[in-house]
Amino acid sequence: MKRSVPDLMNSESPLVMVTAYDFPGGKVAEAAGVDLILVGDSLGNVVLGYDSTAPVTLNDMIHHARAVRRGAPDTFLVVDLPFGTYHTGVTDAMRSAVRVIQETGADAIKMEGATPEVVEVVRVLTRNGIPVMGHVGLMPQTATAQGGLRVQGKDDESARRTLDGALALAEAGAFSVVLEAIPARLARLITEKLPVPTIGIGAGVNCGGQVLVTHDLLGVYEGEEKKIAKRYAEVGRISREAITQYASEVRARAFPTRENSFVMKDDVLDKLY
Ligand code: KIV
Ligand code: NA
C-alpha cells in the first residue's frame, strides 16, 4: 500500500528510503517494501557516469523517473529537481515541478538548499499542492561552492545555518527534510526541533529515517567504499564474476548447452540436406 504524506509524517518507525533510477531498481525497492523511493540526481554519478550532479537535466530526471514508476507503481515516489531547474524564479520552479508530477506520476519533488529563494519556492509549491522534501547539509549540486564534498555543520556558523535552514524549510511547508553529511549530534538536535521527519544520510542514527544510494548499499562499484554507506551486498563483484564466467564458457563452447538449445525432428532436417 502506498504511504500518504500525512502517514509518512506521523510514522512511528524510522522511514526507509532508497534511490532508484530505472525499472528494475523501482521493482526491487518496491518488492523490499521501502517507504519511499527517491529518483535522486545522483543519477548523474551512479548511472550516467558524470563526475557531479550538475549536468543532469530535467528531461534526464523525467526519463528515468518514468521507468522507476513503471517498476514501482505502489510506492511513494520522490523525484529530485536537478541543478538550475528551480533557481530562476518561482514560476520556473513551479513549471519544473508540475512537469515532473504530470509526466512521471511522482508523489513529491525534492530540492536542495534553504536560501530565501529556495524557501520561497517551497512555500509556493506546497501552497499549490505539490509535496516538497527539503535537503540541507552537504548539497552535491553546489558542492563546489561549499568547498567540495565534505561534512557540513561542524563549526558554529555552519551548524546554525543548517539548523535554521531546516527549520525554514519545514515552516515553508516541506513535509520532510534530508540531512546529508552532518555530525550525528547536530542531526539529532535538528530532528528534535523540526515538526517534520528528517531523513539522514551520513547524519547518524537519530533521524526520522534513513536514505542510501542503492548503488552504494548494493556494492555495484567494486573497491569504492564510502564511510556513510554500509554495503549490504557485493553486486559489482558478483556481476563481474558472472560475465567473466559467461565469456570463458562461450570461448570454450561450453555455453549454450543442449538445455539452452532448440531441437527439431531428424526427418525435417534430412530434407534440408
Ligand atoms: O541524489 C540523491 O541520491 C540524494 C540522496 C543522497 C538524498 O539526494
Ligand atoms: Na540529490
Automatic annotation (TrEMBL):
Its EC number is 2.1.2.11. One of its GO terms (molecular function) is 3-methyl-2-oxobutanoate hydroxymethyltransferase activity. The active site is at 180 (proton acceptor). InterPro entries: Pantoate_hydroxy_MeTrfase, Pyrv/PenolPyrv_kinase-like_dom, Pyrv_kinase-like_dom_sf. Keywords: Cytoplasm, Magnesium, Metal-binding, Methyltransferase, Pantothenate biosynthesis, Transferase. Binds 1 Mg(2+) ion per subunit. Pathway: Cofactor biosynthesis; (R)-pantothenate biosynthesis; (R)-pantoate from 3-methyl-2-oxobutanoate: step 1/2. 3-methyl-2-oxobutanoate binds at residues 41-42, 80, 110. It holds the Pfam family Pantoate_transf. It comes from the Bacteria. SUPFAM superfamilies: Phosphoenolpyruvate/pyruvate domain. It catalyses: (6R)-5,10-methylene-5,6,7,8-tetrahydrofolate + 3-methyl-2-oxobutanoate + H2O = 2-dehydropantoate + (6S)-5,6,7,8-tetrahydrofolate. It is found in: Cytoplasm. Signal peptide: none annotated. GO terms for cellular component: cytoplasm. Its cofactor is Mg(2+). GO terms for biological process: methylation; pantothenate biosynthetic process. Mg(2+) binds at residues 41, 80, 112. Catalyzes the reversible reaction in which hydroxymethyl group from 5,10-methylenetetrahydrofolate is transferred onto alpha-ketoisovalerate to form ketopantoate. Homodecamer; pentamer of dimers. Belongs to the PanB family. PANTHER family: 3-METHYL-2-OXOBUTANOATE HYDROXYMETHYLTRANSFERASE. This is 3-methyl-2-oxobutanoate hydroxymethyltransferase. The lineage of its organism: Bacteria, Thermotogati, Deinococcota, Deinococci, Deinococcales.
